[in-house]
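Narrative of accomplishments. A recurring question from our advisory board has been how the design workflow behaves on a single, concrete structure rather than in aggregate. To address it, we present the structure tokens for one chain from the evaluation set, followed by the sequence designed for it. No filtering or post-editing was applied between the two.
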């Protein structure tokens, strides 16, 4: 029990240390918030490629991906999404050329580096694009729902978890934790939504369900990635949490879904 309590305290301290600058960036908006998004994209990309390439291999490819990802985010931020797609297309062309010129040398392995390169661009900066245009109040709403989802999943799962949710993908996640995650997310969505938005409580309850489903899928997806390469965390950057991807995996799936729903229904 003492060990669990120590882990809880470490997670809480790290969470508070992350929340303070993030809330400040959401309040200040502009370049302050955009800088946080760029930093998160760079760290997330580096961790993603480290899962497959190790910590020190293919440095030039990582830096190139970060540059392309920043280009995608910047042009979306200045309301030129068509130019953001050019950077994604450039990434595809570079990966394709890498595949082409390596084909005669190592034909059985030539496609994998380019595929991983493109997967990183799609997973991190592409899914982060909505963070550049949603606005501070909507970002705060999504982040709060995901935090409530992750927090209730952790505490309910560690204390009441008895039935494994998907042991081959994530042996520590329980069905009880997933249910707690859903309840926490829906409750946060209703409370924040009714405080900040214009839709009814039941509309925000449904929105909370949608956000939670994709948040949990994002968490499971990253767990599957880590299981595939045999690591526990994407990095050790955040004590008690793991890496940036371990904290952002749920957000990366939930935010684009919220952005799509927000285009069709008026919540705020």
């Amino acid at each position: 029990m003492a060990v669990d309590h120590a882990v809880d305290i470490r997670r809480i301290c790290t969470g508070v240390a992350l929340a303070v600058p993030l809330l400040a960036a959401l309040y200040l908006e502009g370049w302050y918030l955009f800088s946080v998004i760029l930093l998160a994209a760079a760290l997330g990309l580096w961790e993603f490629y480290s899962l497959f390439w190790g910590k020190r291999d293919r440095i030039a490819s990582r830096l190139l991906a970060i540059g392309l990802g920043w280009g995608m985010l910047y042009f979306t931020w200045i309301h030129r999404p068509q130019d953001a797609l050019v950077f994604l297309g450039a990434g595809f062309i570079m990966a394709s050329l890498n595949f082409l010129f390596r084909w005669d040398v190592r034909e059985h392995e030539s496609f994998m580096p380019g595929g991983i390169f493109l997967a990183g661009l799609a997973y991190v900066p592409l899914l982060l694009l909505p963070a550049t245009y949603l606005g501070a109040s909507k970002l705060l709403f999504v982040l709060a729902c995901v935090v409530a989802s992750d927090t209730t999943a952790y505490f309910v799962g560690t204390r009441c978890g008895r039935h494994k949710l998907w042991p081959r993908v994530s042996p520590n996640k329980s069905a009880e934790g997933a249910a707690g995650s859903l309840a926490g997310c829906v409750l946060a969505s209703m409370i924040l939504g009714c405080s900040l938005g214009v839709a009814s409580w039941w509309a925000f309850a449904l929105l909370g369900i949608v956000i939670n489903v994709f948040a949990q899928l994002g968490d499971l997806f990253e767990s599957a990635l880590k299981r595939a390469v045999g690591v526990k965390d994407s990095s050790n950057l955040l004590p008690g949490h793991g890496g940036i991807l371990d904290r952002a995996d749920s957000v990366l799936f939930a935010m684009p879904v919220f952005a799509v729903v927000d285009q069709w229904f008026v919540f705020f």
